[in-house]
Please model this.
Amino acid sequence: MFALALVLNSWLSLLMPAADPATSTSTEDNVPGVIIYHHPDSVAKKQYVGSPGIIALSKTHYLAKLDLFGPNAAKENNYPTYVFESLDAGLTWKQIASLDHLFWANIFEHDGALYLLGTTGEHQDLVIRRSTDIGRTWTEPLDAKTGLIAEGKYHTAPMPIIEHNGRLWRAFEEASRSAKWGDRYSAMMISAPIGSDLLDRDSWLLSDMIVKNPKWLDGKFNAFLEGNAVITPEGDLVDILRVDDNLGSTAAIVHIDDDGKKVTFDPEKDFIEFPGGAKKFTIRFDPQTKSYWTLTNWVPDFVPNEKPASKRNTLALAVSKDLKTWEIRSVILHHPDHKTVGFQYVDWLFEDNDLIVASRTAFKDESGNAHNQHDANYLTFHRIQNFRDLTMKDSCADYLKAAKAK
Model:
């Protein structure tokens, strides 16, 4: 952890009362949570908020990030990523950095430095960038020694990076198979030894790939993407991916060999029931409960389920002991408008008894409704307090009202 951050936050803790972001709501048209960033008039500009990420440097010092996507994001802004800082546990935020040619990146800390790991643009080169000044400035991936890990066409989202067997692991999708969404994605994993120079291409190993087969799921399989590197209860490394199909409640488990080179997938047994599996989700392991947790865009039975990948107006907390059987524990956010409201692509972390969350949020603003539930205009922060104790009775009021009326 960063010495400067620790000193700064020790000083802040003497001056500030305990923060409770769960009680903080924006005054902008009642947008849930705390607004980190608002992209006004996003519909006219054809630029939307994407790829939320969050990291805690201490219990009061957080960083969050996003990128912009849409028809004009590349043309006008060169695939920008913005980094934000909060010194009061998420109550207020300010932008501290802007980077060009960085897309779909996750933010993480390793060996006293911060990293952003993603691509240079939509389906472009795989790159990593480093900051040694708490996110103010970042290296440029100019060549194989400065962060250009692989040239080609790659896809991802801000997915977790984990440590296992002396290496760092991160899921990606190779995307050169075709130019068509879904068809082009092949599941893979990258890894590097802990303690190695992460800007050096030679530190990284890229696995082989699992290419999609349209015959899977009785011909209803469209794509798998946005995989999570996870360690199973048996100690094996897997990649758990979002699955686009007609049901919207499926995920796929791809198995990674110990050496990180070979990946395997059995369509007869490696598809699982997963609530909200047609949309991006992040899975993390909680040592306290020895359980896996996720925040997912579950579709309640009173919401129309046609095109399930488009239903993003419900954010639910789910838990599993074995990664295969998942239980919806509580509904965190819900809005009756499933066409223009979305709480999606959330990145989150454990913090004692709470979860801290960054959400790509589509919500009404001064220009009117968001373009649709997918094309977000806000990055918002949320704190889920005492998450391990939540039940369906603790769900948000909008959900309880809608469930009662069904």
About this structure: The chain is about 10% helix and 40% strand. The longest strand covers residues 342-351. The chain has one domain: 3-405.
